[in-house]
Amino acid sequence: MSNAAQRSNRVLIVATIMLATFMVAIEATIVATAMPRIVGELGGFSYYSWVFSAFLLAQSTTTVIYGKLSDIFGRKPVLIGGILIFLVGSLLCGLAWSMMSLVLFRLLQGLGAGAIQPVTTTIIGDLFKLEERGRVQGFMATVWATSAVVGPLAGGIIVDNISWAWIFWINLPIGIISIIAFMLFLKEDVAHKQAKIDYLGSVLFSISIVALLVMLTETDASAWILLSLFAVFVVSGILFLAQERRAPEPIISIPLWSRRLIATSNAATLLAGMALIGLSTILPLYVQGVLGRSPLVAGFTLTMLVVGWPLAVMLSGRFYRAFGIQRTLRVGSLMFPFGACFLLFLTPDSSPIVAGAGSFFMGFGMGLISLTSIVLVQDSVEWSMRGSATSSIIFSRSLGNTLGATVLGAILNAGINHYASGEAAAGLHDALNQPTGLSALAADPAIRAVFNAALHWSFWGVVVVAVLTFFTTWLIPVGPSQKREGAAVASEAASH
User: Fold this and answer.
1) Is the pTM of this model over 0.85?
2) Domain residues of the chain, as ranges?
């Protein structure tokens, strides 16, 4: 075990890690619930998906860099620095005066958030032996589940009673307490390591992904602009791959990611992340704008997502022992597209229970896909590569979230442009750019019908991605030893 941190303060450090993780984990659901109100006050509905994409892009592209920096300078300064950047971004987000400024401040917020998950996970590895980490990871899973339940509820209460800015400012006291606790309890004896950080690879990757996201978002741009963006995406992507092959310490190890088990697990995780972020960003719009329900009700439909997720984790050990890890993965992942199909049956007269049921089944399927992928990937490599292999799963999920928010947001905008014209189009855009626009929209049958049709385009996108996720899980190889050892690891994790 590493000597980077003293073990005497382990309980207090883990508690602080849970607090810092909660701050980032709650961000997705609390913002998703409040976004309809925010976009109504700030205007600029076309940038709706970028509020999510900017955060996720910055977070995902900096994750590996922060991990390397923590090896050079120590865990504590890198983690505290990341939290400080996150808090500055949170403060500025609450002061945003337009959707464009909000997107820029969310980008800054994401730059800080990128440090928290990889560095806190590394600290857990420093403090605990391998056989002890199952219990700690169980605590961390509880944090994510709790934040996903509390987030929609808090978001609904905040936007209904006080300024929406507090969905960002609520991070300030949590972050300050975390920084103080890390300074007091996390003691390091750092042995500095020489490492060459692949900054060029990070820049090329960011350029490629940003070009792709802009191309998908600005679908109404001229053809030459779209072609230019596509060329930037392709060229920078090729240069990135070439850089990764010759970099001494690449941000993405091509040989590692090329292994069939890791490649297929990452692909399934990426697709699942795309579908889930689509559900999280689109469903609140439907519940409020078409069903005419409050932000609080919209939040509870998303809460069902994280009821299904931890339930699947808790039951996975039993499933593995009864049916085997491969059968559980393949049959269990069928719950993912099954839940997505509930979205297709939503109508303006539907009960929010239907939306909640779809969220539950998608969460259950995601729980099985996520846990099983991590178990299989960790079991497929030696200990010295386990951190890189595990981070590939986290990175793929983040990238999937980034792509999904943009792609499904673009589909929604395309649906609005397709169905809305003349007075209906003007009325819909006016409604979306008013603080109480979704309530007014739901009260107008003609505009609500257009919005309902446009949102169903996005629902179909979620279903297609969910089906692709299911079929991708069938490509994940599971050997006899992986079935047996993976079941043992998952059973231990679920029991805690």
Assistant:
1) no
2) 7-186, 198-248, 253-496
In this prediction, residue 141 carries a pLDDT of 67
* CATH 1.20.1250.20 fits domain 7-186: yes
pLDDT of residue 179: 92
Q: What is the DSSP string of 127-138?
A: HS-GGGHHHHHH
Closest CA to 297 of 288, 289, 306: 288
Span 479-489, pLDDT tens digits: 554 444 444 44
Average pLDDT over residues 452-480: 87
pLDDT at 415 over 70: yes
Residue with tokens 């090729």: 238
The percentage of residues in the chain with a pLDDT greater than 90, rounded to a whole number, is 12
- Name 388's Cβ contacts closer than 8 Å, sequence gap at least 6: 253, 256, 381
More confident residue, 42 or 22: 22
pLDDT grade for 254, boundaries at 50, 70 and 90: confident
5 bridge partner residues? 188
CATH assignment of 253-496?
Answer: 1.20.1250.20
